[in-house]
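Lecture 7, part 2: worked example. A protein chain together with zinc ion.
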Amino acid sequence: MQNEFNDNVRVQDDLYNYVNGKWISKAKIPSDQSSTGGFIDLRNNVEKIMLKDLKKFIKKPSKDELLNRAVMLFNKILDENDRIKGKDYLIKKANYLDNINSASDFSQATFYLYNNNYPLPFNMGVSEDMGDATKFSLCLMGPSTILPDTTMYNSPNAKALLEVYKNMVLTILNKLEIADGEDLVNKTLAFDKLISKIVKSSEEWADYIKCYNPYPLDKVCELVDFDFKSLLISRYGIAPKNIIIYDPKFLDNYKSLMNNNYNLYKAWAKVKLILGNVGYLSEEYRNLAGTFNRTINGTKKMVSLDKYAYRLINNYYDEVLGVYYGKKYFGEEAKADVINIVKNLIISYKELLHKNNWLSKETIEKACLKLDKMEIKIGYPDKINDRYYALVFSENKSLVEIINDLDKILNEYSDNRLYNNVDRTIWVMSGNTVNACYNPSFNDITFPAAILQAPFYSKEQSIEANYGGIGCVIGHEISHAFDNNGAQMDELGNIKNWWTDEDYKNFQTKTNLMIEQFDGLELEGAKVNGKLSVSENIADNGGVTSSIISLKRVKSDCNFKPFFLNYAKIWCTKARPEYTKLLLTIDVHGPAYYRANMQVRNFSEFYQAFDIKESDTMYLAPEKRLIIW
Ligand SMILES: [Zn+2]
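Predicted complex, written out as structure tokens:
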């Protein structure tokens, strides 16, 4: 990326722009992207490599049967003349909804609708039980809204955005020659408005412990207006005794949402179904169906057909592609090196806990147990999960039918797990993903092969730079085990209070200080939401803390300049203003600028490395600095 630092700013006044400013001033955001830099550039590179290989496999098939299936789907998406053949199928599928006029119609049709992936006035699925992570449970929540967050309905531009949505839908319905377009879209917006008043905002979703509300089945049945029990028996054989309700407010209001509103529901479901599928019919339809999202995130044009095809096959064959990528482009030597860094970070975390001055011995021991039990997943899995073998489709069908078939297989696979034990060997992120994660239900951390490259990690860069990059990212993921959500789950991934009352109170005080530190920071005329981003800010804070002491241990004469310079570099991003504002509303991650510039001010090593004085902009009074772990 950038070769030189920005001489127009002093590092002591703005670390982020000192490191990234020069690059940012020259960088152009490609018209099909909402941002560029850092993570996104790496993603583009992985995509480029994979596209080249996939195109090669079209001409000369691989020996890997699963990979060939992914290539077959890739090729099918590229064939535009073939895609339009699915038009009749989609219209027929949508028209089925015309039969739903009442709660009793809906009761009779629910199983069919659910089984065939129609939009329902609720979302339901099987997921790990947060109270007992060895088993699965059935979860229920409200549908998503048209605007990406409920708070956006009160914003000054809500009306204009919904107008863009309306025009987009009208154009598509007209082109498909579906009658009563105006009426359908007005009803869709009316139903969406009702939904927006009873579902959670992004800030509420960020507190995921509050999603765990087990309700007895009978109670759920009382709160809905259709035969829920029969739906469950048809689908699962036996209806589960308890359902986990993610948003109780939605369920409490379910009956009033549906009361005399089936005419609104069926219009909404029809429009949602068409919008979700019409892009499979042709590039023209894909372009039209992307209008609303492009307006929201500021992107100028849709991604090219081959990139779209790659991203779509990743929805189904991600692990197949990830294992291929990992085996070919990620070496065993790098894997061993990164495992050492992870182990070092875990040792550091224990050291931090033992030196901690605000926790009791009892809580420290429990926290260390959580670290001992943490599973590490690096690169890509040894074995591809069974579900990928089930993803078989008929090449003779149109793309829209194939996608619907594949979705059906995936949903059935997911639902069939309800009465099985949880398989903890599965990976939640594939090897070709430029990201990393902590899974609270498994108490495991995953670092896919694709993120293990520069600037995050490279054998060519200094050990300090690696600890400022991948070291902080690894520390970040480990810290999620002890963020405001993770702290409420035990070493097995169950919601359980393992704290003494006083320790937990101290932790909450520190959590509130972290909320205060970020809340209201300004960017592009909008403000950071401290509550929405608190879990990620705690994780960043713990990530930098643990990476600093790890580096000190592996290199006693280390230099913190390259550490912090690379830490700022990994966050290098240039985003469209619309996108920045959108993320500030819906993303649990704070903006890159503050993840670098606000976070580093908490660390004395940063002040020493760059000789930061009270008169410098990056200076934060010692009493305001915050280190949680
Ligand atoms: Zn995170």
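Residues 476, 480, 536, 539 surround zinc ion (CB under 6 Å). The chain has a mean pLDDT of 96. Keep this in mind for problem set question 3.
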